[in-house]
Amino acid sequence: MDKTGKIDDIDRQILSILMENSNTSYSVIAKQLFVSSGTVHVRMTKLKEMGIVTGANLTIDHTKLGYDVVAFLGVYLEKSSQYDDVSERLKLIPEIVSAHYTTGNYGIFVKIICKDTLHLRTVLHDKIQRIAGIQRTETMISLEESINRPLTLEKKEKEEK
User: Fold this and answer.
1) Which residue, 18, 78, 146, 152, is the most exposed by fewest CB within 10 angstroms?
2) pTM to 2 decimals?
3) CB-based burial label for 77 (10 Å; 0-12, 13-18, 19+)
């Protein structure tokens, strides 16, 4: 990492390793990249200070905890100006694990995890569809997730000087 705050290939490699497995220790990363553990630590501190690294997540199998239904919900807003208010209300629903402000047919696209279809119906009917500003919703139940991976960071091409 240079002093201007740009990241280099070592930074990208550190990020790639940690995105694959955030439990990887700095010493293991250091051995893989032929640098010191201190170098990895300093670079991670800088990446956090720059706002590139904002946290780490724990990945779990929801089905083993009794949550067998993953659904995606397209939310049609009455007016696009209601996005902020609707978004704040959606944040209060624990079954919603992500929401995106989108272009296209839907104003908001939501991912929901529920125990079963009855639970999903209750969340839709009693929580989501009662929010002021939501005109209607369209639900798609996921039958299987075939891809769930971190972004692959490419090496930056050497810049001409």
Assistant:
1) 146
2) 0.82
3) buried
Q: How far is the C-alpha of 25 from the C-alpha of 18, rounded, in Å?
A: 9
CA atoms of 90 and 99, how far apart (whole Å): 8
AA identity, residue 115: K
Residue with tokens 């104003």: 107
Nearest to 137 by CA among 99, 81, 92: 99
Tens-place pLDDT, residues 35-80: 999 999 999 999 999 999 998 888 899 999 999 999 999 999 999 9
Determine the pLDDT at residue 152.
86
Runs of H (alpha helix) within 66-145: 83-90, 117-122
Report the alpha-carbon distance of residue 124 to residue 69 in Å, rounded. Answer: 13
Helix axes 9-20, 26-33, angle to 10 degrees: 130
